[in-house]
Design brief:
The chain is mainly alpha-helical and 152 residues long. 67% of the residues lie in helices and 0% in strands. The chain has one domain. Helix 4 crosses helix 6.
């Protein structure tokens, strides 16, 4: 039995994780406050999810769930790194998940779960897109809808 473990497609994973950084960047730039909280972060999360699902469903990579779990973890690590670099500059002290190891684990688990949910939806969408739809049955001979005929 020849089984190989699936591996993430790293360019896709990195691209999706980088795209998700629009969420913390909106917050850093003050756009989330200007556009309104909590609506803006929720809308951004929905947009990111739709992009993740759509891109992964339409791609040729195997294992959409694996790809998006990896993207979620990649986003968690990238946003943590972003907070570690920028918080001392913007706030004067280190803030974010690096200040609490339990928080770092929870951020990774939460984003992995987000990726898993998106991955399941991407897999379902992919299956739906690839399943040929059956042609409608031909009308019955001699009795087309709307045809004139006598009723008994």
């Amino acid at each position: 039995m020849n089984t190989t473990l699936a591996r993430p497609h790293w360019p896709l994973v990195a691209g999706l994780a980088a795209f998700a950084l629009i969420r913390p960047l909106f917050s850093i730039a003050g756009w989330s406050d200007a556009l309104g909280k909590p609506a803006t972060p929720l809308i951004l999360t929905a947009v990111i999810s739709v992009v993740w699902i759509g891109v992964t469903a339409r791609s040729r990579v195997r294992e959409p769930v694996l790809q998006l779990v990896a993207a979620g973890i990649g986003y968690a690590l990238a946003s943590t790194l972003l907070a570690a670099v920028l918080s001392p500059i913007l706030e004067g002290e280190l803030q974010g998940p690096l200040t609490n190891p339990i928080a770092l684990v929870m951020v990774c688990l939460t984003n992995a779960a987000w990726g898993a949910v998106c991955g399941v939806l991407a897999q379902a969408l992919r299956s739906r897109l690839r399943t040929p739809r059956a042609a409608p049955p031909p009308p019955a001979s001699g009795s087309a809808p709307g045809s004139s005929g006598t009723r008994a």
